[in-house]
Queue: 3 jobs
Job 1
Amino acid sequence: MPSHYFDHAATTPVDPRVLREMLPYFSESYGNPHSIHEPGQRARAAVERARRQVAALIGAEDPHQIVFTSGATESNQWALRLFPGGTVSPFEHSSVREPALRLGYRIAPASGPEIQWPEAPGPLVSLMKVGNELGTIFAPEALCGQGFAVHCDATQAVGKVPFEVAAIDFVSLSAHKFYGPKGVGALYLREGLAEPFVIGGGQEEGRRGGTLNVPGIAGMGLAAEFAAEERDEAARQAEACRAALLEALRPLSDWRVHGSAPASPFILSLGFLGIEGQPLVVELDHLGFAVSSGAACSSTMTEPSPVLEAMGIEEAWRPGTLRISFGKANTPASADALGKAVYTCVEKIRNLE
Ligand code: PMP
């Protein structure tokens, strides 16, 4: 069924094949992967298989370089806390930006998508692969080999655009952005070793304490496999949806596409003059369309997005921002229907004012 859910950058549904993979680990195969008995070892085998699948997704040489976490938020903070400071891009998600500010990191300025890194950025530099608000594709790999460590939040990249760890030192992932479950993710550690951020019973070879979320991890593993296999087809479908949506919006005045090339085909940020994004999201929801006015995590905040500002989007264009993010169940026909609904709602709100 074509879906009217267009907020896949916020989260994706769990793929039914992934759910089937996860279910036995809640009940029949409930062993603790750290137990030495057979039920424990069965769970352990699922975790190790998932580690190989996640490693393969991002081109990591050794599965040992993957440590499972509760998601990209934890992975990002862990990476930042491993260093006494550094510099992060102005386009980062709040789960990099906020801890970075607290930990004394600098935020680099930018002009458009070009980041002005300082001469001496410090021991760690963090740059995401795909921006969650505008879909901009960045090049964190180009920062490697310059005498500082590089962290990349690849949460919106994997399964969407070509991404390999290459010489990057730390990479964060979240399973629920690629049709896996929520609350599970990973941190890639190039050296394989790191001081733990969550200290506990020595799990994950002493790198992250806490009993592993076996069903979640097993689900993340299989989702990673599908993300790699189905990426190109999903991207073609997203391109077709994007084209249909933009075509449907053509008759409308005073709107534009935010951001600049290269961008992920999965994220489309639109600006509408003279209106606010939030009422537009509400109007569209009444018509059955789920979209966002920015990052889901900050959509309840009323402050303007620092990312739009850093990207140089003029103040008049910032409040009326809509983020549409495509996924596997969207079709060009449903994107066309969304485009027409956006047209109707924008006109309605403009006429009210
Ligand atoms: N980084 C980016 C770029 C994201 O889009 C998100 C989720 N919105 C996160 C990190 C955080 O992921 P999670 O909430 O799964 O920890």
Job 2
Amino acid sequence: MSNLTRADWDQRAQQLKVEGRAFIDGEYTAAVSGATFECISPVDGRHLANVASCDAEDAQRAVVSARAAFEAGAWSRLAPAKRKAVMIRFADLLMDNAEELALLETLDMGKPISDSLNIDVPGAANALRWSGEAIDKIYDEVAATPHDQLGLVTREAVGVVGAIVPWNFPLMMACWKLGPALSTGNSVILKPSEKSPLTAIRVAQLAIEAGIPKGVLNVLPGYGHTVGKALALHMDIDTVVFTGSSKIAKQLMIYAGESNMKRVWLEAGGKSPNIVFADAADLQAAAESAASAIAFNQGEVCTAGSRLLVERSIKDKFLPLVVEALKGWKPGNPLDPDTTVGALVDTQQMNTVLSYIKAGHDGGANLVTGGKRILEETGGTYVEPTIFDGVDNAMRIAQEEIFGPVLSVITFDSAEEAIRIANDTPYGLAAAVWTADISKAHLTAKALRAGSVWVNQYDGGDMTAPFGGFKQSGNGRDKSLHAFDKYTELKATWIKL
Ligand code: NAD
């Protein structure tokens, strides 16, 4: 916990030195073209930096550096125990610089400083540390061969990894990739979102300080359709790991097919159902959880509980509890340590959210609370947490990922109907079920087509369990030892004895 006050953070924000250049071959550098884009804070519209707008030539430079580093072996062939030590140092450096990183994250994408400091930075450091700690404890296999053969089944680093990440948890999503990618010995080219590039740029320097050799981690800020596309089409990138929308995820699969058939691992969007049965043991806890599931991180969460499925017999009792709980989630200046909801990432995202609120009205849903832009005078992009009741699962606000604090309340009459509605979505990232009946909990959890299912809670999880989606929420998994599969190739070596 930090003792810094709003005034302290404001002062630090004034004094903050922001690096906007790309990081290639161990050095900060402008884009080859010299192009930059403006990084504007959603907190109050202030200009934060001119950031290098990388493109295909920068991607080429980074790939050459990353490949050379991989081939040289100073990192890729380093003993796992030594790589572990460096990864742990890297994690420690994130924590040593936690206040600066948290401030960059909050100014860049608008989330509350308390979340940046207590959730994002420690979560990112933990991903590096956990993966690093694991790497000298993983064993390969010896196959069940005939007597005169020795069959070795080994995992090898894939080589050069392109990591393309989104803006909602910029540092944490990056480190969910960097942890296992670097620990397994790969070189990485990280492309942060153009909406939130600052912590990724800063972290590159910390990697060098930790002892990661130059060229092993490169960071290329820029737009998706320029440098992102160039990486995805590059013939000498072995794997692209991605977190972002399902639309771009599908595009990356096409790029892979059009280029070198690079492996593509996708963590995409969600429209997660949060099912509350009438026999839930603690409706108050369920209501508070439903509120945080849609308001935390301004609703800009891939696993946001954006569809609240409530059994009809308790709807009139339950919904007021959710409305009351949501009053604790009021947007305010994210640099105030007491703020729980900050600004949406930018004007474009705010307008998208407001257009979905209009679609809710137009589609015939009933606005219960919220629905408006607020704090406009600050120059920031703030929207009230919003609830629509009377939502039909076929409505746009129930089918499409809004990525903002807009909750759709849908009623059901039976477990079968709840499961049918819950699964009636292109997505399959997460789901939750609230019931005191253990059989109903298990049967519902089994029937839900989602990569994570929570029972009597929302958003549980840590580095020990895999995280990712079914259906159009993606493939592959971040976190846990399962994530290492994405960064390694499986090799069978047959030795004639
Ligand atoms: P996005 O798909 O618009 O962008 C993600 C990244 O892809 C950005 O870095 C962007 O610049 C890049 N990109 C865009 N077009 C590209 C192209 N043609 N080629 C290569 N790269 C390109 O997503 P976003 O708006 O940044 O993030 C929000 C999305 O991320 C939501 O759908 C959310 O659910 C999802 N998300 C998923 C998870 C998960 O673990 N499943 C976690 C966080 C966010």
Job 3
Amino acid sequence: MRLALLGCGTVGAEVVRLLNEQSADLAARIGAPLEIAGIAVRRLGRDRGDLPVDPGLFTTDALGLIKRDDVDVVVEVIGGIEPARGWLVEALRAGKSVVTANKALLAEDGGALHDAAAEGGGDLYYEASVAGAIPLLRPLRESLHGDRITQVTGIVNGTTNFILSAMHATGAGFAEALEEATELGYAEADPTADVEGFDAAAKAAILASLAFHTRVGAADVHREGITEVTAADMASAKAMGCTIKLLCIAARGADGQGRETVSVRVHPAMIPLTHPLASVGDAFNAVFVEAEAAGQLMFYGRGAGGAPTASAVLGDVVAVARNRLAGVRVASESAYAALPVRPMGEALTRYHISLDVADRPGVLEAVAGVFARHDVSIATVRQGPSGGGNGDAVLVIVTHVAPDAALAATVQELRGLDIVRSVASVLRVEGGL
Ligand code: NDP
Ligand code: HSE
């Protein structure tokens, strides 16, 4: 079984290392030896340290490598949309099996890859694309196929989890915690994809597609990052017995006519410290799956890093290699349900709102009136002195579940009230309170 490795960076180099270290075991598990036919990279002259591989295998001609007749499996760990998309479509159409860790591509145009796999008859596996080492996609697409998944809630970005965990532990602000994450090598030089939620949104799209048998792309995911989360937000969350996490939430629901829909969103949210996801610290990932018959399932582990991600890549390589030897193909996509994706405004959620208000008669009534006008029911209200010594008060309001659009309109109207000095913090609340 011969494989073409596209990319030899953080993940690719570990794939090479593990392939080398475990070659005898892998051959025994697959039923045939696994050999690297070639490794496509961008810079031939790059120092690759003591990588245990013949330097003659490196090439910059990825397409030429993919097209070789002696290549059975293409492993893509380059990343990005192009040229990866064109190369993988070419490989799949030619009947090769593909293993990829490329969440951005799968979320952008997974359909093109699945169509090409169906056309060529090879497998398309991508376990490493979501939550790194955690076996999650295979359970969703195989083990749970006899069940009906109702919701997937996850922490799927390690960088932001590290930052938010640091903010919770030390009271640091976002910028300070990001600096620490960068110094320790958790955050990339350009952290935009992580802190603005793009990385988590791509993973959310992949999870939703598998969970709900529906093609969901990155553009279908409501996305908010963590750059606006302040030390005051975290302090407010802690005062309520909560913490703040960047959550990806994919849920079944229904529209106004009772037709089944899905909603997929990524945003920071307050969760109670008793919630299973609250204790997921550092750069770890965890995903909580709820299914009708299975009940609640939790998946936890390392979501990034060379070796953990290479572990998932190699698991896929073994699976597709076995399939090829057996002459079978596993349908990688199940999109028969084709459920419509509900806009964020219709998603049902809860808000925690902290207001600085004038402390005088009628203020509570005026504030409550705004909620009532938007048909948003208040669950709890807490009032305390503002701490500014100016006679103002702080009102902390937690709502019941309501459509997100109604909650957002409530906050907008509150901002316009004279008696509201400022809307200090607005956070969604998940997982009960
Ligand atoms: P790196 O940037 O470390 O490595 C990218 C590799 O691709 C390099 O070897 C580079 O070549 C090669 N490459 C880039 N452009 C081209 C090109 N045009 N032609 C040929 N080769 C090219 O990326 P990572 O290993 O971190 O990530 C790879 C994939 O895995 C991405 O899709 C990422 O999202 C995903 N992933 C990564 C995780 C992680 O923890 N790093 C976790 C989960 C998924 P050269 O070496 O010459 O520069
Ligand atoms: N940047 C990602 C993270 C890597 O922080 O989780 C894994 O996809």
